[in-house]
Amino acid sequence: MITLQKIQPINDSVLETIGFHWHTDSDQSKYVADELVIVTDQEAEAYYEAVNELYDMYATAAQHVIDNNLFFELGIPFNLIELIKKSWENDVHWHLYGRFDLAGGIDGKPIKLIEFNADTPTSLFETAILQWAILKHNKMDEERQFNNIYEAISDNFRRLVTLFDDTETFDEHYDGWKILFSSINDNVEEEQTVRLLQQMAIDTGFETGFESMGGVKFDDEGIYDSDDNAYEYWFKLFPWEDIAIDEPELAVLLNSIVNNQKAIILNPAYTLLFQSKGMLKILCDLFPDSPYLLRTSFEPLQGIAFVEKRVFGREGANIRILDASGNTIEENDGPYGNFKAIYQEYVELPKDAEGNSYQAGVFFAYEACGLGFRRGSKILNNMSKFVGHVLR
Length: 392
Prior knowledge:
The chain has 11 helices and 19 strands. By secondary structure, the chain is α+β, with helices and mostly antiparallel strands. Strands 1-2-19-18-17-3-4 form a 7-stranded mixed β-sheet, with helices on both faces. A 5-stranded antiparallel β-sheet has the order 12-16-13-14-15. The longest helix is centred in the first third of the chain and has 27 residues, at 41-67.
């Protein structure tokens, strides 16, 4: 059982002054818990090591998928395959950040990979900024958390220019390249997440702009804001699979833009390989002895409890938990039912004294860089709560 520490929550009006407006859920309950998960230094180090190793495994698996043309198995839309290959082949297409979702690690049980949100991960603002603010508000040592996300992502912005060189050489290499940041219209959470990333880029030394997805202009020669200013980089908090399916003409244009070397897109197209939960099956094939992996198949598992997921899906939608006899224990409907299913061994998440489940989220930006938790029932959905942590 996990250990929690009660804290004094930050007033909603104060949260809004730092840009955090999604503090209250639709049922009027508070999104941010008034407790912290107590994590030991050893547990934090174990999360750090696990996520670094898992990312290396994903990179190996991505190469395997490309070499063996396994895109169909992962549910990858055909109109993105060439763009995925192109972005994978050239180091300038840098993976800015992602978030690993994990079971275990704080309850004496081993760390297990649930999935990797590699393309459009949320909870960045909560994990990078809000946790720090909560500790400060409660007169606790802000350094006592596993959280250097702001610095790590800022360094990754520098690596867009320096690549594998020392990030301190950014000023020597930078030549005025600009990044356009975009999120969908009328979603304050996603906009504030993108604006946080924009601020990181500004702090790094980039020139930047912001434009909602609907205002961005594209042609074969580049990407532009609504004032026709061209940008060398475009960050979009918009899933690649949605571009492929809902905006096929844009997928074609982006392929031409990358082929013509007119702009670089963040996160790159190859992160769709990582995003696909079908990759969990590939990982099991390639790393059968890894202590971090749960048994996963494209067919229902036999003799053990398992979870049915879709290769693309979010916020607990279209998930079923089944017992060893194949009976449904819990399920959520959703809009992702047309995507291919995968079947993953079921593992209990850590629980508190009241029976709530906790899933760790560890951000990755060149290395593991920050920890936060989501709290809910067996299936975590968009009503799950964010829970910060403190190191003890």
